[in-house]
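Justification of resources, computational component.

The compute hours requested in this renewal are based largely on the per-chain cost of generating structure records like the one below. Each record pairs the submitted sequence with a full structure-token output. That output is archived, and it is also reused by downstream analysis tasks.
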Amino acid sequence: MRDSLTIGTRKSPLALWQSAYVKGEIERVFPGISVSLKHIVTLGDKTQDSQVAIPEIGGKGLFTHELEESLRTGEIDLAVHSLKDLPTASTEGFCIGAIPKRGAAGDVLVSRSGQTLKDLPNGAVVGTSSVRRSSQILRVRPDVRIKHIRGNVATRIAKLRNVDNGFDAIVLAEAGIERLGLQGEITEVLGFDTMLPAPGQGALGVQCRADDSELQECLQRFHDATTAAAVTAERAFLAALEAGCNTPVAAFGRVEKTGDGEVVICRGRCLSPDGSQCIEVESSAGVTEARSLGLELAGRVKADGFEARV
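The structure output for this chain reads:
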């Protein structure tokens, strides 16, 4: 193995945590290696204060394009992404070298008054920039008003606490809250019946060049096969639906042991933007058939009349 590696990372506190985690895993399995972090600014970072919704700015590649360009030129050796931000179609010349063990996959509600989603007052204002989250909120609370909010985790919480911004609550990923040590901010962990996560949420994708076989072998030392099987089913479901960022699609997979071995169980949900229509599917398959399971579930959703909005 080479003597040094450079990890490309965004500068947000959460991105730095994620890259530091992967740095620590590499140093754990290869104690003699020197791993450095290189800060890279993405389009998503440049537009954090924008009032324009993410799908209108750039969609899935919003936080990954510049990292991939640095990887392509050899400026960095690998990039760490939140897997939910990484497009399901791999960019030519790159691969996901490892998917570490997943963190919490779900979403949480942070409310200014300490009220749960059910107890928020009629017409309460809930902040999110995700159509997946907004549609599922409206599904159970059609009376609330959704207000666009962007920024990193701490910024969104600060916007909530400032009464002048008019938010009663916001929805965030549980993994991000936990990784930043902000568990005390959580008002309610939203159950999957209410809020199914984005495909890949809570998991990391460690991206490298496809021709760098030596590094891929290194990364496999902390690759988690159980997490990989679960997110493979989720991301195959999303990919087969050809859904853009304007389409509320959610999925969660889990691996369980049975008498015949391990199986992956995947649950998918597709909604209309206002939450009034919902198609939900669930099935299981052997872990080696995770991708086929996701495709099967997507086929069932399409057969029920789902049409993606690009």
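The longest helix spans residues 13-29. Confidence is low (pLDDT under 50) at residues 53-58.
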